[in-house]
Amino acid sequence: MKLLSEEYKDKFKNDIPGLSKELDGSPVIYLDNAATTLKPRAMVDAMNEYYLGVSTNIHRGKHYAIEEVSNRYEHARYKVAELIGCSGNEVVFLRNTTEAINLVANGIELEPSDDVIVFSDAHHSNMLPWFSRANIHFVQFMENGSIDWDHYRKLLQLQPKVVAINYCSNVTGVYIPLKAAIDLAKHYGAMVVVDAAQAVPHRRVNVSELDIDFMAFSAHKMLGPTGMGVLFGKKEYLEQLKPGNLGGGMVDWVELGSYRLRKIPHRFEAGTPHIAGAYGLSAAIDYLNQIGFDELQQDDTEMGEYMLAKAMERDYLKPVNPDPNLDRGGVISLSFPGTDNLDDFARILSDSYGIMCRTGHLCAQPYIDEMSKGQVLRASAYFYTSRDNIDSFFNSVDEIASVLLAA
Question: What is the pTM of this model?
Answer without folding.
Answer: 0.95
